[in-house]
């Protein structure tokens, strides 16, 4: 049997439509348009594309995005003072600081200056702490998007074994917290994990967020598993691929996300959702 595709593009389009409708209702009722400040330091080509896509999505749903492109010579202090100004700006409900930052800037330190109420990426220790305590407010976008994908196919969580491969602060760790909150038994694998295959073989739900093509072998997939591939890798021919050996894995799994067209579009949709949530909490 061949796995069914989990269509992130379609779910993201549906989510954007719902967000746009909510924003229209809000503005008709006299509330201000949600505002997202987008900060890009330097001119990394991939970051420029991500920022353009996010701003385009904002326009589509009725979020006002205010762009702050800064040169790669920007100091940590300048960046922190811009963030402090935006924290006080009542027209701004969300602050997006596009990563990675130039090596001269300590991103953890800078991110902590974003007020948690405007931390629409969900990276602030306060928001991660809320998630860890099962009381999430603004949830890290990519794991939140994965949960929306899993919910869209009516995934059951309680009593099932979820294996997360990758343990970064922005994807793997919050992903494991989301799945734990949903009731899964969770295993987290990372670069020091021994015998990755033995863990993956036990996964009813597998989420891979490593960034290495074909690190997850198709033959490891448990029959009827649900596979979410967060990885984005560019092959020498320019095409994109995930972490999972898709063509073999899809013969064993029940559900699988494609790359591209799976998690990526949902990461942008959840950023919009978080900006709306931040604006709703502010209610002005
Ligand atoms: P990262 O480099 O910060 O983290 C990678 C993780 O993989 C680390 O925890 C590391 O320990 C683990 N790892 C490395 N080698 C391993 C191995 N051999 N076995 C098991 N684990 C191993 O990366 P990240 O920011 O978490 O992103 C991971 C991937 O997800 C990348 O491909 C990135 O492009 C992609 N990504 C996609 C989206 C999206 O919207 N689709 C969003 C964020 C990241």
Describe this structure in words.
By secondary structure, the protein is α/β, with parallel strands linked by helices. The chain has ten helices and eleven strands. The strands form three sheets. A six-stranded parallel sheet has the order 1-11-8-7-5-6. Strands 3-2-4 form a three-stranded parallel sheet, with helices on both faces. Strand 2, helix 2 and strand 3 (64-70) form a beta-alpha-beta unit. Helix 1 (8-28) runs parallel beside helix 10, helix 2 packs across helix 10 (263-282) and helix 6 (141-152) crosses helix 10. The longest helix is centred in the first third of the chain and has 21 residues, at 8-28. The N and C termini lie far apart (52 Å). The model has no long low-confidence stretch (mean pLDDT 97).
Order of neighbouring strands in the sheet with most strands = 1-11-8-7-5-6
What compounds sit in this structure?
A: nicotinamide-adenine-dinucleotide
Q: By helix and strand content, what is the structural category? A: alpha/beta
Number of strands: 11
Main pleated sheet: 6 strands, parallel
Radius of gyration: 19 Å
Count of DSSP-assigned helices: 10
Elements, N to C (H/E): EHEHEHEHHHEHEHEEEEHEH
- Helical residues, percent: 40-55%
Head-to-tail CA distance between termini: 52 Å
Strand content: 15-25%
Mean pLDDT: 97
The poorly predicted ranges are none
Categorize the overall geometry. globular
């Amino acid at each position: 049997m061949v796995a069914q595709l989990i269509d992130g593009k379609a779910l993201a389009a549906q989510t954007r439509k719902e967000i746009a409708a909510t924003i229209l209702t809000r503005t008709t009722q006299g509330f201000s348009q949600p505002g997202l400040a987008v900060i890009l330091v330097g001119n990394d080509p991939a970051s420029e594309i991500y920022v353009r896509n996010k701003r385009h999505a904002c326009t589509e749903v009725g979020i006002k995005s205010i762009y702050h492109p800064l040169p790669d010579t920007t100091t940590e202090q300048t960046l922190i003072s811009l963030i402090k100004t935006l924290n006080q700006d009542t027209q701004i409900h969300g602050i997006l600081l596009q990563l990675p930052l130039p090596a001269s800037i300590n991103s953890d330190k800078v991110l902590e200056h974003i007020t948690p109420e405007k931390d629409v990426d969900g990276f602030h220790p306060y928001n991660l702490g809320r998630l860890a305590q099962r009381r999430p407010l603004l949830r890290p976008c990519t794991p939140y998007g994965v949960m929306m994908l899993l919910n869209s196919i009516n995934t059951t969580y309680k009593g099932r074994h979820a294996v997360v491969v990758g343990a970064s602060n922005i994807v793997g760790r919050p992903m494991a917290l989301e799945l734990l909150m949903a009731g899964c038994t969770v295993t987290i694998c990372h670069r020091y994990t021994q015998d990755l295959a033995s863990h993956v073989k036990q996964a009813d739900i597998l989420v891979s967020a490593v960034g290495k093509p074909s690190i997850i072998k198709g033959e490891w997939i448990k029959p009827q598993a649900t596979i979410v591939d967060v990885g984005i890798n560019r092959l020498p021919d320019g095409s994109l691929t995930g972490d999972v050996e898709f063509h073999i894995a899809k013969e064993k799994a029940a559900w699988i996300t494609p790359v591209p067209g799976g998690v990526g579009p949902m990461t942008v949709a959840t950023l919009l959702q978080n900006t709306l949530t931040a604006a709703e909490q502010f209610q002005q």
